[in-house]
Design goal:
By secondary structure, this protein is of the alpha/beta class. Helices cover 34% and strands 24% of the residues. The protein has 13 helices and 19 strands.
Amino acid sequence: MSIAASWPDAKASSLWEDVSPRYPFNDPLRGDHRVDVVVIGGGYTGLSTALHLAQAGYSVALLEAREIGWGGSGRNNGQVIPVLAGAEPEAITQRFGDTGARFVALVRDSAQFLFDLAAEHGIDCEAEQAGWFQPAHTPAHLSVSEARCTAWAAVGAPCEMLDKPAGDRLLGSGFWHGGMLNAQGGHINPLMLARGLAEACKRAGVQVFEDSPVSSITRENGRWAVSAGTGRLHGETVVQATGAYGGPNGRLARSVVPLTAWQLATEPLSDALQREILPARQAMSDTRNDLYYFRWDARGRLITGAAMMVPVSVTNRLQTMLRARLLRAYPQVGPLRFSHIWSGYVGVTPDHFPHFHRLDTGYFAATGFNGRGVALAVSAGLELAQLVGGEPDVALPFSDLHPIPMQPALRRVARGALVYYRWKDRQKP
């Protein structure tokens, strides 16, 4: 196929869309329905919440504005990473106390939970639990990896440090300097996971409605009334899980900064190269702020990606930049061609923590996974379901909602932070 760059607000013309089996479209919401819980958002958080609520005996309806997996859950790189992007266990527990300790355990076990859930429900999502490796991009950054590995190993995570020779063997490259390996990580086809979760939801009794953007959420006679298209849902509880794509609550949408992340897939590479590069097929992303990250897919493509400061001539500039990165790390690949370029939004919060909110009586929300939503959002869905069920000590650190001042302008400014991050990545030899 010819390369076509898919933008976050457009229909996802991604690798995952091209290689995944066709999915039967679910009808839009029509008419009035009464359920126990209304879930808004057909990504990992909403799907997992709906599934676990239905399994607990609740009647559930799930509304998706576009298609299942249309947002970040169906567009991401597919790396399953059981750590946060910007905080270690001690900082989490210091900030959130006993809830923080439970949240640390949730993060620690999130990759295993995802792979187990997919197996339990027979979801074919090209899952490979081959581990996640975070190599140090300079010798000085090896101390960052050591500190992270020590911190997570202390709370029971299966982390180990690899020195440079061992890291080189795992990566098939001498470009990095050793790093942290977490054996529970890995990678998936993210769109197939989202669609598989939707099918599991339907088998459990969830009513799934697509092409149903929510226009209003109001309180009527002690219940919530959620309007979408020509239909209305009436429920005791609402869970909003729309992530970086906003959704019907404007204050919630303005509490995160949606940044565009681009993904690229090479054409299938030779069996010989697949035996040389990441030969055990781990997912990897390094210690840079502007990450180098690579993984194999099920058809022998290397999947990588990057952010861009200026969204102009994206197709050509991304190919030039990512081809150069691959050749620095893996010069044996030789001339490269990319078959797919696509993008999606990543929800970034000012404190780099995911945010969970009680917006009103019986109205909960989750957002801002900061690039760690593949594993964590699925686990968070179980916790949200338990919260709805009356469990008082869930493993989610709830906070007040604080919209970001001048958030639309900040979205443009945030792209410029890449200049600073790339400069910072070069400071430690």
